[in-house]
């Protein structure tokens, strides 16, 4: 019953209330829509009082909208540091979310911490520093075949750990 009464209230008064709020806000359609939404929220909370027998419903809605606009104006005047965005500044650029890359880095670091230091050094040289086995061998001061062997066993250990983690 209350839902039907509210739906009817919105259907009957939304268009005229939006026009009124748009005039009150100096043509700012976005602010006017916010005012209308807040007005109807307050109407929902006072639905029992909004009947023609208790006075003009339209008058009540207009008074609430008027008060909301005045309160908003007063609030902005009280906070002199608040500035309205110019139309060219309304496009907000979303900043990339680095959470996933941080999580991956932490996971890789933890996994590398669980393998032999010699294997870890070979993996770091080949995969993280993007070196060939020959370059890694030179950097580590060990034969190239040893680098290949250590990388092989390190990857095998990491795969096993990953399988155990998934299970």
Automatic annotation (TrEMBL):
Top-rank taxon, per record: Bacteria
SUPFAM superfamilies: Sigma2 domain of RNA polymerase sigma factors, Sigma3 and sigma4 domains of RNA polymerase sigma factors
Listed Pfam families: Sigma70_r2 (PF04542), Sigma70_r4 (PF04545)
Keyword Transcription regulation listed: yes
One function term, GO molecular function aspect: sigma factor activity
Domain RNA polymerase sigma-70 region residue range list: 9-77, 111-159
GO biological process: DNA-templated transcription initiation
UniProtKB keywords: DNA-binding, Sigma factor, Transcription, Transcription regulation
NCBIfam families tied to this protein: sigma70-ECF
Family affiliation: Belongs to the sigma-70 factor family. ECF subfamily.
Protein name in the entry: RNA polymerase sigma factor, sigma-70 family
Organism: Frankia torreyi
């Amino acid at each position: 019953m209350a839902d039907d009464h509210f739906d009817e209230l919105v259907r009957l008064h939304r268009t005229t209330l939006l026009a009124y709020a748009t005039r009150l806000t100096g043509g700012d359609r976005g602010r006017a829509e916010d005012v209308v939404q807040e007005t109807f929220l307050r109407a929902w909370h006072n639905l029992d009082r909004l009947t023609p027998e208790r006075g003009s419903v339209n008058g009540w809605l207009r008074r609430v909208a008027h008060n909301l606009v005045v309160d908003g104006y007063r609030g902005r005047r009280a906070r002199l540091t608040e500035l309205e965005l110019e139309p060219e500044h309304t496009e907000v650029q979303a900043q990339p979310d680095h959470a996933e890359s941080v999580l991956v880095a932490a996971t890789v670091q933890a996994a590398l911490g669980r393998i032999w230091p010699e294997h870890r050094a070979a993996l770091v040289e080949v995969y993280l520093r993007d070196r060939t086995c020959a370059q890694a061998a030179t950097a580590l001061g060990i034969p190239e075949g040893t680098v290949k062997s250590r990388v092989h066993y390190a990857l095998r250990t990491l795969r096993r750990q990953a399988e155990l983690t998934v299970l």
